[in-house]
Amino acid sequence: MSDVTEVFQIDQKVVYPSQGVGMIISIEDKEFKREKIPYYVIYLEVSDMTVMVPVDKADGLGIRPIVVEEDALRALELIGEEYEPIPSDWKLRYQMNLDLLKKGSIMDIATIVRSLYHRSKVKELPILERKLYDSALKLLEDEVSFSLNKPKEEVENMIFTRLESR
Fold first, then answer.
1. With contact defined as beta carbons under 8 Å apart, do 46 and 20 qualify?
2. pTM of the full predicted structure?
């Protein structure tokens, strides 16, 4: 048996930055090279998919608990604030935003949504960047929805109201 400490509990909602919001449905030991390794089994509703993540790798993958209400409200405020112009070179922008998404804090995700939303008003986003924007927007909607206990449609309206206030 490994001596890895489990940070999350069964039935806890978590954010897996590159995948979405999910729920830990179980914690199971799997044998690997004659050693039992504990895994989180996470159900991701957005893609109707279940993933297994080694407990000791969860932190490195950016898996974290859903933010508290105060942080969700702060992220909504952020998307309505002034912002620095972003690079016009889409490849540079894409890499910067991809790095933010991998870090995965709600503020990083809100920053991606805000910058790419406003960039898309200037010029249509390249396909890869559009997918990144869509992923970040979905992640933001899901997490804020769970955190504030509000329907996704209401959260989507809150996000776009703030984005369009600039």
1. yes
2. 0.86
